[in-house]
Amino acid sequence: MVKDFVKSEKGTDFPKFFNSDVISEEEFSNWLKVFREYRSKLFTGGICIKEFVDLKKYGDRTNEWRVFYMNKNIISCSKNSGQKDFSVEVPKALTDKYKNLPSTFYTVDYAELADGSWKILEAGDGQVCGLSDNQDAKAFFRAIKASY
C-alpha cells in the first residue's frame, strides 16, 4: 500500500495495493509518479509503503476503527471505513494499551484481520487526521474541551 506521510489516495484509479509478483519496478515507479500527481499540493513529506493485510469484512466494508487520544484519555472511538452493518468493536483492552504514548493528541487506527485478530494500521498526529464518516463532530469537539 502506498501513501504519503499523511494520506493514501482514495477515490481514483490508483491501486489499493501492489503485488511484487505482477508488477515490475519500472511500472511501480510510474505509479509513484501518478500518486504524486494525484496528491499534488496536498502531498506531505514523502512516500510511505505499508504492508497489505487481509482485513475482515462485514458486508462490503472492512472493519476499521479510529481512536483519538488526548492527555492519556480516549476521547473518540469510531468506525473508520464506512461500516453500515454490524461490526465488532475494537477491543477496549487494546485501545487502553495505547493510552500512554508520548504525545498529547494522537490517533491510532485499528483493524480487524480476516482471522478475527486485531492490528494497528497506523498511528498519527491528531491534528492531521480527519473525523470518520458519520462521526458526531460536535461530540468530538466537546470531548476535546472536556479533556483539558
Topology, please?
Blueprint: E1 2-4, H1 25-39, E2 47-49, E3 57-58, E4 61-62, E5 64-70, E6 73-79, H2 92-97, E7 105-112, E8 118-125, H3 137-146
Antiparallel strand pairs: 1-2, 3-4, 5-6, 5-7, 7-8
Describe the structure.
By secondary structure, the chain is an alpha+beta fold. The N and C termini lie far apart (36 Å). The chain folds into two domains: 2-49, no CATH class; 57-146, 2-Layer Sandwich (D-amino Acid Aminotransferase, Chain A, domain 1), CATH 3.30.470.20. The chain is built from three helices and eight strands. The strands form three sheets. The protein has a four-stranded antiparallel β-sheet. Strands 1-2 form a two-stranded antiparallel ribbon. Strands 3-4 form a two-stranded antiparallel ribbon. The mean pLDDT is 89. It has helices at 25-39, 92-97, 137-146; strands at 2-4, 47-49, 57-58, 61-62, 64-70, 73-79, 105-112, 118-125. Strand 7 and strand 8 form a beta hairpin. Helix content is 21%, strand content 27%.
List its traits:
3 helices, about 150 residues, 4-stranded antiparallel sheet, about 20% helix, alpha+beta, two-stranded antiparallel ribbon, D-amino Acid Aminotransferase, Chain A, domain 1
Evaluate the radius of gyration.
Answer: 17 Å
Shape: globular
Beta-strand percentage?
25-35%
Low-confidence stretches: none
Label the structural class.
alpha+beta
What is the makeup of the main sheet? 4 strands, antiparallel
CATH domain topology of the largest domain: D-amino Acid Aminotransferase, Chain A, domain 1
Q: Strand order of the main beta sheet, please?
A: 6-5-7-8
Overall number of domains:
2
CATH superfamily of the largest domain, please? ATP-grasp fold, B domain
CATH architecture of the largest domain: 2-Layer Sandwich
Number of strands: 8
- Helix tally equals 3
Return the string of H and E elements: EHEEEEEHEEH
- What is the average per-residue confidence, as pLDDT, rounded to a whole number? 89
Q: Report helical residue fraction.
A: 10-25%
**End-to-end separation:** 36 Å
CATH class of the largest domain: Alpha Beta
